[in-house]
Amino acid sequence: SDHNPVDNHTCHCSVCKAVTGQPTTHVAFFRYADVEVDNMAGLKRQPFNVKNPDGPLELCTCAECGAPIMLDDKMHRIRAIVPNLMGFDEGFPAATYHAFYNPATGVPKPHDGRPVYEGLRPDFAWPDPS
Q1: Is the dihedral of CA 37, 41, 43, 48 positive or negative?
Q2: How far apart are CA 125 and CA 130, in angstroms?
Q3: How many Å apart are CA 103 and CA 118, to the nearest integer?
Q4: How far apart (Å, rounded) are the C-alpha atoms in residues 129 and 103?
Q5: What is the per-residue pLDDT for 2?
Q6: Is residue 82 classed exposed, middle or buried when 0-12, 13-18 and 19+ CB atoms within 10 A define those classes?
Q7: Among residues 31, 74, 28, which one has the least CA distance to residue 49?
Q8: Taking phi first (over 0 means left), then psi (-120 to 50 degrees means alpha), and beta for anything else, what does residue 63 get?
Q9: Is-contact 71 53, C-beta < 8 A?
Q10: pLDDT tens for residues 65-98?
Q11: How far apart are the first and last CA of the chain?
């Protein structure tokens, strides 16, 4: 995309951990229309959250090789990427905060100078559907 993300965070949620195998996941949300897909037919779609298969987010992978491409919102609000897993270089903007941190997991609270929230940042508003 030639556009900046509308949200850019380090995610601590259990779904991202299960999908990526990482303890935390850098996630960037873009407005749905700001991310163009060259070959929609070449995508394999599966629920992002296996415990909520009818939820709004789908994990899109390459139908040929299985590489993760993006998260696609069935409501057409956002498309999300995980920079380190989806081919973006180190020049991608850093996450600006921590999302979905849950102290009950026993993981120490991050102390890297970025805000830490139990959900998305309080001022985040889902974009209107495209």
Answers
A1: positive
A2: 15
A3: 9
A4: 33
A5: 82
A6: buried
A7: 74
A8: alpha
A9: no
A10: 998 899 999 999 999 999 988 888 888 999 999 9
A11: 16
CA separation for the pair 57, 47 (Å, rounded): 7
Write down the mean pLDDT value for the chain: 94
Number of H helices and E strands in the chain, helices first, is 1, 7
Can you give the pTM of this predicted structure?
0.92
Maximum CA extent, the chain: 43
Distance CA 125, CA 114 (A): 19
How far is Cα 104 from Cα 117, in angstroms, rounded to an integer? 13
CB burial of residue 100 (10 Å; 0-12, 13-18, 19+): buried
DSSP 109-124: PP-SSS-B-SSS-TT-
